[in-house]
Design brief:
With about 250 residues, the chain is α+β, with helices and mostly antiparallel strands. It contains 4 helices and 16 strands.
């Protein structure tokens, strides 16, 4: 069967938070990014954006009823019904939905949402700190050994984005051909099984000083490698600060 991918017009990352962690996480990420929280939306005011000074929001919080925090992507599309049909034909499963939002699960079990496009246009510029510029610009999809190949095929087919995979690395990137605020990184985990999950990555001009800035705001460094540092935020979510140039995922860079 020939699959036709989506015309993804905007990409957001959602930090899913139980009620007792909302205030802690929102304060941390607002301070780390330099972006204040915006007006809540949703039937229960459960969606809260971080509002860049010079762009449209691409990092949001979602207040959830479960006890485990997490991260998931939202893809904005022109035709929601057609997008859902395309996603399910590629192996996604619908969890619940309405005419405003459809929650799905990828073949490997990663939650994601398809939503109508609302004319978001402007990807924000990196924030400038004494430690150098930084920004949240990547959502990393972490997949165990037995799920990475199918998960990579799914997201590549779904988005029709540029796939960069040298074949010998545990990483592959999916980058939009348009100027979207985020890209996907797919990471092969050294695990024999388990569910696919996701975390946020920041690009930073000067990684070690940036990590120290995060530490003073309440993050806990977990691991340092040659290219990135893994931390845990005050709500318990793992994320990474990388050596990538901020905005390096934009068209022409």
């Amino acid at each position: 069967m020939h699959h036709v991918g989506l015309a993804v017009r905007w990409l957001c990352a959602f930090i899913d938070l139980p009620a007792d962690l909302v205030q802690t996480a929102e304060l941390f990420w607002s301070t780390v990014t330099g972006q204040p929280t915006g007006e809540p939306s949703g039937d229960h005011q459960e969606f809260v954006p971080l509002q860049p000074a010079d762009g449209d929001p691409h990092l949001w919080f979602q207040h959830i009823g479960t006890s485990t925090p997490g991260v998931h992507p939202d893809l904005s599309v022109e035709d929601l019904a057609a997008a859902v049909q395309a996603a399910t034909s590629m192996g996604a499963t619908v969890v619940r939905g309405s005419d405003r939002l459809v929650s799905l699960s990828s073949p490997g079990g990663l939650p994601f949402c398809l939503v109508p496009f609302h004319e978001e246009r402007r990807a924000s510029t990196p924030a400038d700190w004494p430690t150098g510029a930084s920004m949240v610009d990547q959502l990393c999809i972490d997949a165990p050994l037995d799920r990475i190949d199918r998960e990579t095929r799914f997201w590549a087919q779904l988005t029709c984005w540029r796939l960069q995979d040298d074949g010998g690395s545990e990483f592959a990137t999916l980058t939009s051909y348009d100027d979207l605020p985020m890209r996907f990184l797919l990471q092969r985990l050294d695990e024999p099984g388990g569910q696919v999950r996701a975390h946020l990555d920041l690009a930073s001009e000067r990684r070690d000083p940036e990590v120290e800035r995060h530490r003073t705001l309440g993050a806990e460094p977990v691991r340092r490698t040659s290219g990135w540092t893994t931390l845990r935020d005050p709500a318990g979510l793992a994320y990474c600060v990388t050596d990538r140039k901020p905005s390096s995922n934009r068209r022409g860079q």
